[in-house]
Design brief:
homodimer, about 725 residues, Rossmann fold, 6-stranded mixed β-sheet, about 40% helix, globular, transketolase activity (chains A, B)
Amino acid sequence: MSTSNENNVSKNREEAHGQKHVSSPDVPAKNSSVETEQLVINTIRCLAADLCQQFKGGHPGTVMGAAAIGIALWKYEMRYNPLNPSWFGRDRFVLSAGHACLLQYIMLHFSGYDDWTLDAVKSYHAPKLHTIAAGHPEIEFPGVEVTTGPLGQGIANAVGMAMAGKQLGAQYNKEGYPVVDGKIWCMTGDGCIQEGVGQEAISLAGHLGLDNLILVYDNNNITVDGTIDNCFTDDTSAKLRAQNWEVIDVFDGSNNLTDIVAAMDKAKTIKGKPTLINIRTVIGIGAKNQNTGSVHGQALGDEGVTHLKSALGFDPAEKFVIPPIVYEYWEETKGRGEAWEAEWDEMMSKYADAHPEVHAELQQRLSGKLASGWESSLPSKSDLPTDPIPTRKSSGLAFKSVVPSDPTFVAGSADLLESTFVSWDGMTEFQKPSSGLGDYSGRQIRFGIREHAMVAIGNGLAAYHRGMFLPIMSTFFMFWLYAAPAARMTALMGLRWIGIATHDAIGIGEDGPTHQPIALAHFYRALPGLNFIRPADAEEVMGAWILALKDEHHPSLFTLSRQPVPLLPGSDRNKVALGAYAVHGPEDPELCLIATGAEVTRAIETAKLLSPLRVRVVSMPSMAHFDRQPTSYRRSVLPSSALVVAIEAWASFGWARYAHAGCHMHTFGMSAPQETLYDFFGFTPRNLAEKIGKWAERCKGDKPGVGDFEELLLGQVPDHHSPMPYSV
Amino acid sequence: MSTSNENNVSKNREEAHGQKHVSSPDVPAKNSSVETEQLVINTIRCLAADLCQQFKGGHPGTVMGAAAIGIALWKYEMRYNPLNPSWFGRDRFVLSAGHACLLQYIMLHFSGYDDWTLDAVKSYHAPKLHTIAAGHPEIEFPGVEVTTGPLGQGIANAVGMAMAGKQLGAQYNKEGYPVVDGKIWCMTGDGCIQEGVGQEAISLAGHLGLDNLILVYDNNNITVDGTIDNCFTDDTSAKLRAQNWEVIDVFDGSNNLTDIVAAMDKAKTIKGKPTLINIRTVIGIGAKNQNTGSVHGQALGDEGVTHLKSALGFDPAEKFVIPPIVYEYWEETKGRGEAWEAEWDEMMSKYADAHPEVHAELQQRLSGKLASGWESSLPSKSDLPTDPIPTRKSSGLAFKSVVPSDPTFVAGSADLLESTFVSWDGMTEFQKPSSGLGDYSGRQIRFGIREHAMVAIGNGLAAYHRGMFLPIMSTFFMFWLYAAPAARMTALMGLRWIGIATHDAIGIGEDGPTHQPIALAHFYRALPGLNFIRPADAEEVMGAWILALKDEHHPSLFTLSRQPVPLLPGSDRNKVALGAYAVHGPEDPELCLIATGAEVTRAIETAKLLSPLRVRVVSMPSMAHFDRQPTSYRRSVLPSSALVVAIEAWASFGWARYAHAGCHMHTFGMSAPQETLYDFFGFTPRNLAEKIGKWAERCKGDKPGVGDFEELLLGQVPDHHSPMPYSV
């Protein structure tokens, strides 16, 4: 599929450069010779080979094949200031093919990022800790916008950033003041294009007409296992055209910098559509094993490096050679970046005079802080409905109190807007204006039935400028499993969003076991850096929102009931952040029942049936927050002297940390109304009280220890995979 | 987009039917009048309205809009025997849009499945348990091939079934004996088409040229949140053509049965490609709120039902009306099905004479049992390598011992064939013969970088005929998070595959935190019905394979190390199924260290350093299997008198059930060589021994109870989201 000849230097290079400068007058007109550029390309290739060979690991092939793409981006196309990597007015670059990070690192070095010294780049795969040249790009490091690696997600991150840019532009740009007009560049390989999350994001980007998004496809037709003709024969260009994308082809992307630059210049001018630049390259070009899977993820070997260097006119005896002319070639990038930033600053100061109100709002947004006053706008406990309501609906009350008035929030759903209560009256949809459905100033996002992309897009929104957007995303809890790979990346990056996960247990009822989560909470509870909260009632829902809105560095996921729950007399929003607290019962309990979410109400009813036993009910909206409390607090909630039983309609896994016994789900659920299911699986207060009472009796004088955890509802129903009875 | 007129009966219906019977001579030539067919369609619509209205729930809209599609499938197109739903020679039907199950249930009733009485169908959303008419289709029930509901996966299940059919055909069909030639019909709505997993499967099906697969797209342009023009404007037909699919359009699918049948007839004749039939329908057609989101997932209301019935000429006062002529219309299906099966049986008996060897093999396959002798073909412990090897490589030894010789196995990877050791010498790839890469008899599958589809396809293979295929699927453990929604469905269905999850912890090293699982095991451990095994060495790997190969009703997932581990003197394959056992140390331990996988070796070294303490090391390859052992066994492994510490380089969540303290990961990982990481995060035997020894000293005379679990490595490294230090 790819064609290449490393010596086939484009005959039109210089003319094309001249042309380019006409169309991009902001790029300093500093021509370089074709020879120089080929030398730069070859230097990158040899450098990649040396960098992988030194520690015999890493991914050399893409760096070598896509060297010219890297040059086009960092030398000719992207606006950025290496002396201030977080300059707000910059273009943003997402390396969806994260394993090719070495290309990015080399570019960051050449283009003048202070921290990206040659020694820093040489720490790639080094046997040491805290290397800036991590195995995949990490958001913590200058010049990296988002952490990537798990394939496909980077495309969705870039879509989120493009949405961010479009929305800010619609909100803040004024005639003569294009304060937000950067492009989002995303580099994808063959892998990201195969992943479902990439496809979801591509489809949505086309729908939304995000013309600030340019997807640069390093189409080398090779993955780890060799040629992708083995498993992928889509016509990607035609496929993206069918999804409302502009497609520009480049047929020799390994060396023809002129064509790449021309394609990128053209992409910048496309209106109303995102653009795919489909660039054919040869992976590992110049290496003996070019165009094979082995050059994707393995160093070339000493002999391979020698072969490469000889072919490219480098001395095989020397390593990490960067001719001075190569540095000269990149010389302009620092000054240019400073000039761009200064120009932008000047525009901003005029903008402040011309449009003081929007400027002030933009400044507030740039601070990354929510507008003040949100906490007091939440309904107080005495203002909450006294009739039972689903916690998903209580969450809607919090949502409507804080979201409409603060432009920081964007909110949407994977096709369940009304079930998850994340829409509001008078909202504008974020849509392509020509659709007639909304415009880019809208803050209501319709993600479509694309849960994984939704959350990966949320990551892009959150990463655009820390704190400038607070995305709220929603679907049924079960489908947060589809989104889990992206939520994990959020936690890893320390970004913030709020996830609304409704219909959170067998309480979803008639939709049956396919929609009833049993084991999903356990992933989210084990995940470092994510606030996983299951509130018991409307008051705890307010506490969950407060916790999430105060925590700038972690995503929060609330799981919420479909079914109504009463407002509990003992519930307290201020105690949610403690993780657990006594919500009912005496000061000196003999028995504690810990429950979460909708099961707290059942636990309180159970406690009453267990009288005259002195039973405390503990609501535990967040295990992780409880674990962080001092022992004294933990022991005041769950006294050592008391027996403890956990009640939760999910798998028991993880509960033995707190409880001597538990009432949990041991199978998948079923199709039936929620009350019928709670009965069937044993969660009626009567059954719970009976099972717990008998067990407590058995434990008298012989308190269970570690290793004795008893599953009090085990055997309540036959194993799901025994022949299933059914009625006809 | 859709156009419709419920009275616009196609003028060509009867001629077309005549024509149809010419092209499908096996359908009894029993003409029905256009009036009768419209009555059947209308009856289904009123029935759907009544069935949803009775319990005020369910999904009426699709049933009403797609009634004619249902008739086309069950009356004209599909080969099946309602009197023997599991007749092997049948076509298979997958309802990817599982929420439309009521359409399937009504069709199963009309076409004569004994268990699907009208009362059975009326149990849809009934307030009772064990209803056959579950909220989404469930594999346990006659006429349902696979459990669906979470969108998009059904398409991938159907792709798996089509691969199964193709492969069996290539292996067992002989001239004049098309013993496996059924079609796989998959009905999808707008939701499945948006989901990434659906897109992944579509891409692979096109690549493989699965011409036994027909995707019937009920294109009503409406989802829960209303028109999909809000979020999805792909040209789906063009998109699928770009992925090597044939596309046939039907423009009035709500009523024009003739066109639907003609399209399906044509689809059956397409060679070398799967076919999409893009059928425009009007959701909830005839209802007042037709063509809206509300008719998708809500009953019509009494008034709505009255309106519908009046419009369709039914008496609003009567419910569940099925005119006798409607039953007459379906009368032929039972006898026809029996005749088809008898014909197939006759062919099979001739086939047995003509091709006794392949017939015998096919019979073995149909038994759903593995060929005998596999256990003894596994290398014994004394034959295992004595040098340290990665457990992923040990798994490759087991794989090569059992897989090549038994045609039940198919094996593949999401682009990591060689890293996961699931290929073998002399294998044939499962490929379209014209690709030149393999043929349909191949058992080596290249899934592409499509983890979610891989496992959902595995479910389709496993569901084709229980036990006939044992799919082995592989990728890095981290990317089993992408596949988790499909793995959950496997467990729910009680199907079998073996999942190979390599590079299972920080031992992946330089690839960094994006590739290092911390919290993923916790989902799989909590999931009911899945064998999650983390073997400690090559011997335990053999035990894991034995466990998986003996367990016909559950999927098994092995997590395996990238890095080498030694063969442990105390390891024992026969004890893997016990979940945990003492692998090192004295009979009367004061202290037990439980570890899993590669950490067992470290625990043994730690135990030695803790001398003179009497320390036992327990290997716990499976928590769930251990939990199922009697208390006496559990207490023999972890005596009440001993202190217990867990050591595992994942999050500690879940370990307090067994241990008083733990050594775990509290943050995400990092990019560095694996040894460096184990050191940094505190997993060196020296550090472990120091931390554990001090803690054991503190515990003297005061054994920790439930609630006292101590994280001995907490604070070992700073919180990941403190400002990250890095070196340049």
